[in-house]
Each structure stands twice: as structure tokens, then as C-alpha cells.
């Protein structure tokens, strides 16, 4: 089955919620509310890019989204205290447990980064395992970390020649 990466459409919300919940369930680093965070970002118009990985719908007879959406990534705006803009953050990123380690997460991340770069992004931040995200060009950047994030997991990838001088904030929806 061909995998398609496309923007979230009306009707995908429940599938995205379930994939995120399933992907993070039982993970020692999970907050347990990652699926609710995606809904909060959407409700607050902060989900500036929401990509889903979908098994080719044309090949599935009248599929409910729950069966065909196999991955999701959320991008939101991040703020730097130096006033430079625009910066983006990504996360949560989730792949349904049965389909992990097939490269779906990498496709979602790469397509998302390409899209925000085409929008003029100065760079992108995230909190996550450096072992995974270093392959996409992210570097642990404690000097730029928000005070309320674990600095050893805070990472930045520059997408421009601008180096920030301040620290970052994720969207307030991350902390509700
Ligand atoms: C993280 C995640 C989105 C990656 O998607 P994926 O499609 O499974 O990943 P890919 O196939 O692109 O890459 C697989 C590689 O990622 C590694 N990997 C997957 N999750 C990882 C994690 N949380 N930390 C470190 N490495 C991870 C795998 O070991 C594998 O490594 P290898 O290429 O050296 O063998 C997916 O595994 C997932 O949903 N995990 C649970 C939710 C989660 O942890 N989200 C991110 C929180 S920061």
C-alpha cells in the first residue's frame, strides 16, 4: 500500500487522537495527555501545520479514517525572547504502534520541515530524545531552552542563517 503524507482534513481528528494516545501509551517519558495537546492546539488555532501519514485511501474501499491514518505530526509557532520570527516547534509526533520503525515518522518530520522552511521558518525546536532527532539535524541546545523544559532534551534545528540570541517558549497550550 502506498503511503501518502497530506495535511489533516476535517474528519481526521478522532484518528489523530487515537494514534497519539496509542503511540505514547506506557512510554516512560509520556505525559499521558499528548493526544489532548493536539486537540488543544487545534482548538486554539495554534496547529499551524498538521500532517497525517495515510495508507493510500484510493486502494481502500470506503475507509474510515481510523483505519487508514497511521501517523501524525503537529507543528505550532514558537516564540524567541529576542523578537526574531518565525520559529516553529514540532510535537507530538506519533506513529501507530504496529507501523513504527518503517520510516513513517521520518517522512512526516522531513515533509514538515520542508514545508515550514518554504514558509520562511528561521528554525524549529522540540523536546525529545536526541538519539532520534539528531538524524534530522537537530542539536541539543540548552542555552536556548525554556526554563520549564528539561534542557538536556531541548533541541533546535536552524533553517536559516539566523541564530537566536534569546530563549524559546512553546505555545501556552503545551502547559495547560
Ligand atoms: C518516535 C516515532 C514517531 C518515530 O516514528 P517511526 O516511524 O517509528 O520512526 P522511523 O521509522 O522514522 O525511525 C525508526 C528509528 O527511530 C528510533 N526511535 C523510534 N522512537 C524513538 C524514540 N522515542 N527515541 C529514540 N529513538 C526512537 C527507532 O529505534 C529506529 O532507529 P533506527 O533507525 O536506528 O533503527 C514513533 O516511534 C512513535 O510514535 N513513538 C511513540 C511516540 C513518541 O515517542 N513520539 C516522540 C516523542 S519525542
Written account of the structure:
It contains five helices and eight strands, in the order βααβαββαβαβββ. The protein has 176 residues and is an alpha+beta fold. It has a single domain (3-175), classed as Aminopeptidase. Strands 1, 2, 3, 4, 5, 6, 7 and 8 form an eight-stranded mixed β-sheet that branches. The chain is globular and about 45 Å long. The mean pLDDT is 94. Coenzyme A binds next to helix 1, strand 4, helix 4 and helix 5. Coenzyme A is lined by residues 23-24, 27, 93-95, 100-106, 128-129, 131-132.
Question: How is this structure best summarized?
Answer:
With 176 residues, this protein is α+β, with helices and mostly antiparallel strands.
Poorly predicted spans: none
Number of β-strand runs: 8
Radius of gyration over all CA atoms, rounded: 16 Å
- For the record, the count of structural domains works out to 1
What is the molecular shape?
Answer: globular
Distance between the termini: 39 Å
Descriptive terms for the model:
176 residues, alpha+beta, Aminopeptidase, eight-stranded mixed sheet, 5 helices, 8 strands, 26% helix, binds coenzyme A
Provide the fold topology.
Blueprint: E1 3-7, H1 13-24, H2 34-43, E2 49-55, H3 65-68, E3 69-80, E4 87-95, H4 104-118, E5 123-127, H5 130-133, E6 139-140, E7 154-158, E8 168-169
Parallel strand pairs: 4-5
Antiparallel strand pairs: 1-2, 2-3, 3-4, 3-8, 5-7, 6-7
Helix pairs in contact: 1-2
Bound molecules: coenzyme A.
Amino acid at each position: 500500500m502506498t503511503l501518502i503524507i497530506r495535511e489533516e482534513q476535517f474528519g481526521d481528528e478522532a484518528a489523530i487522537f487515537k494514534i497519539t494516545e496509542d503511540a505514547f501509551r506506557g512510554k516512560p517519558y509520556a505525559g499521558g495527555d499528548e493526544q489532548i495537546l493536539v486537540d488543544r492546539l487545534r482548538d486554539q488555532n495554534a496547529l499551524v501545520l498538521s500532517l497525517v501519514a495515510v495508507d493510500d485511501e484510493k486502494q481502500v474501499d470506503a475507509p474510515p479514517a481510523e483505519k487508514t491514518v497511521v501517523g501524525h505530526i503537529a507543528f505550532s509557532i514558537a516564540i524567541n525572547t529576542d523578537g526574531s520570527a518565525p520559529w516553529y516547534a514540532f510535537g507530538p509526533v506519533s506513529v501507530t504502534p504496529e507501523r513504527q520503525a518503517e520510516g513513517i515518522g521520518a517522512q512526516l518530520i522531513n515533509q514538515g520541515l520542508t514545508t515550514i522552511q518554504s514558509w520562511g521558518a528561521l528554525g524549529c525546536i522540540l523536546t525529545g530524545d536526541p538519539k532520534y532527532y539528531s538524524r534530522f539535524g537537530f542539536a541539543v541546545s540548552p542555552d536556548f531552552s525554556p526554563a520549564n523544559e528539561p534542557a538536556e532534551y531541548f533541541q533546535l534545528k536552524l533553517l536559516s542563517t539566523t541564530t537566536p540570541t534569546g530563549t524559546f517558549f512553546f505555545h501556552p497550550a503545551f502547559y495547560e
